[in-house]
Amino acid sequence: MIGVYRAGNSLLHRTPAGVKLLALLVFTTLLLIFRAPVTMGVGLIVVVLAYALAAYTPVVMLQQVWPMKWIVILLFPFQWWIAGWEAAVVVVGTLVLAVAAAGLVSLTTRTTDLLAVIEWTIQPLRYVRVDPERVALLLTLTIRVVPVINNLVHDVRDARRARGMERSVRAYVTPVVIRTVGYAERLGDALVARGVDD
Amino acid sequence: MSSQSPLQSPPVAPHRSNSFLGARDLALVAAFAALIAVLGLPGTLYAFGSSVPITLQTLGVMLAGSILGWKRGALAVIVFLVLVAVGLPLLAGGRGGLAVFAGASVGYLVGWIFGAAAIGLLVQARLPRYSIWWTGLANVVGGIGVVYLLGVPVLVLKLGTGFAALASAAWFLPGDVVKVIIASAVAAGVHRAYPQMLAPLRNRRP
After folding, report:
1. Residues near A62 by Cβ (< 8 Å), separated by ≥ 6?
2. What is the reported pLDDT for B16?
3. Is residue B4 part of a domain?
4. pLDDT tens per residue, range A19-65
5. Residue B197: helix, strand or coil by DSSP?
6. Domain count of the fold of chain A
7. In the 8-state DSSP scheme, what is residue A17?
8. E strands within chain B?
9. Is A178 in Cβ contact with B28 (below 8 Å)?
10. Residue A65 structural domain
11. B49 inside domain
12. Considering the domain boundaries, does residue B201 fall inside one?
């Protein structure tokens, strides 16, 4: 499965995932505390510099916020009209800068590294009888299961087409879910056989 | 695969082991988290003679709650959201990464967790009696009520306007009503095929 991560060798790529996540948390919190147009200006400079640090052009940054184009196009004039230009800049700026910064962390951090951070973060859950290793197994197992369920969905879709029942949603979802449960049972048996419950 | 009788396979026994999640529960949670992901992939389902692509991701959330119960259902949604957060493009429209959670609709995503839990709680509260109408009601309360209860206020907060948030809720409502009907009908079929899938809530008065 191809993730959001883009391989690279920049300073930001080499920074540990935990540090980047912490920086992202601090950055978005500051945006929410100091709600002024000046903050947005400073924030924009910080984000553009961070993208440069990762050896990305502003085009890459634009790609990250592109899915929000309609929100921005509709929200900015609306906010300007309702609450003035300062409010419009703050509301749209906070949203766009947070998404751009979060996107940069995802671009420069491997999925496996982020999973490792999660595993480390949930260690204290041991004390409420949640096994962190089991959580890690669950996450990696699910990544493996997605293509299996995807194949299963395509099989059902082909079968439905062959029977000329393309329009029936129920003739589609019911067999998909029944087969998903059936697969989960076999997967559960396999896990038990490998001693996961011991 | 579907020709196999459910009677031949060993019954699904929830919470067999001492740990918070037995191996069979683990497999079910992984499978339903994957199902939520696959239902959001493009080309999964086309309505109206393959002209309008509609996403069924929230249907997956409703199914997880209705079929797995509150604990495993909510966990399946959490697993799905964690995989989206670490960068897999599994959210409808091929979106993924931390940017999704910095956006305006993050309240809906978190709402899915509590929505699935609410659906599961309501369905389990009435077990061993199971009715499609009760499941439908549970899906309206959890899949629409709880999800919007978290999604709409966060949207208002992020966009700074209540108007846009309400407009978006109204936009998604008809589709969600259809998904409630589908989820309830499908969950009824699954409970018929696998009656031991879901345990009633523990009786507080012995």
Report:
1. none
2. 45
3. no
4. 999 999 999 999 989 989 999 999 999 999 999 999 998 899 999 99
5. coil
6. 2
7. H
8. 46, 52-53
9. no
10. 11-121
11. yes
12. no
Whether the predicted interface score ipTM is above 0.85 = yes
Contact at CB, B30 and A149, closer than 8 angstroms = no
Contacts of A105 in chain B (CB under 8 A): 97-98
Q: How far apart are CA B35 and CA B29, in angstroms?
A: 10
User: With contacts defined as CB-CB under 8 Å, which chain A residues touch B32?
Assistant: 180, 184
Pair of tokens at residue B113? 């967790």
Residue A155, CB-side half-sphere exposure with 13 Å CA sphere:
13
Residues A46 and A107 both lie in one domain: yes
Whether B74 has its CB under 8 Å from any CB of chain A: the answer is no
CA A173 to CA B81: how far, in whole Å? 22
d(CA B24, CA B12): 7
Q: Is residue A3 part of a domain?
A: no
Residue A134 to residue A78: CA distance in whole angstroms: 48
CATH number for the domain harbouring residue B35: 1.10.1760.20
Range from A120-134, A140-154, B74-88 carrying the lowest mean pLDDT: A120-134
CB contact B23 to A (< 8 Å): yes
Q: What is the mean pLDDT of chain A?
A: 90
